[in-house]
Design a protein that fits this description.
The protein is of the alpha+beta class. It contains four helices and five strands; from the N terminus they run βαβαβααββ. The structure holds nickel (II) ion.
């Protein structure tokens, strides 16, 4: 088994809030990320595909196709967007790094050969990242 990873990047705004909690509880729990007027993050995304090398091409997956897929499906959808207001995916889902990683995985999983494993690593800050692999 071999893994290849494509890195990409998007900027987006969000607000973390649970509508079932009081304003005080949301502010205490989510802190700065509860800011009513939103705030931005520079998200770094690593998409890792794992499987067997194709004997004919010597590739696992064509990196150009993987990079085009990430651009078309993730960057166009989320880059320079307010995740809460501008996207269907987070209309009713708190846009935590955890939930963003799961959403990205679900979108890409449908487009990548089912013989391959898929893992998402999403950095919300240079020091904080989450990983999801289904
Ligand atoms: Ni935040």
């Amino acid at each position: 088994m071999i893994s290849v990873t494509r890195k990409s990047h998007f900027n987006a705004a969000h607000r973390l809030n649970n509508p079932n909690w009081s304003d005080e509880k949301n502010e205490a729990f989510f802190g700065l990320c509860n800011n009513k007027n939103y705030h931005g993050h520079n998200y770094e995304l690593d998409v890792t595909v794992t499987g067997e090398i194709d004997k004919d091409s010597g590739y696992l997956i064509d990196m150009k196709k993987l990079s085009d897929l990430i651009y078309d499906e993730i960057e166009l959808r989320f880059d320079h967007k307010n995740l809460n207001l501008d996207t269907i995916e987070f209309k009713d889902l708190n846009p935590t790094a955890e939930n963003i990683a799961v959403v990205i995985w679900n979108i890409l999983r449908q487009k990548i050969n089912p013989d391959f494993d898929l893992k998402i690593r999403l950095y919300e800050t240079p020091r904080n990242f989450v990983e999801y692999s289904g």
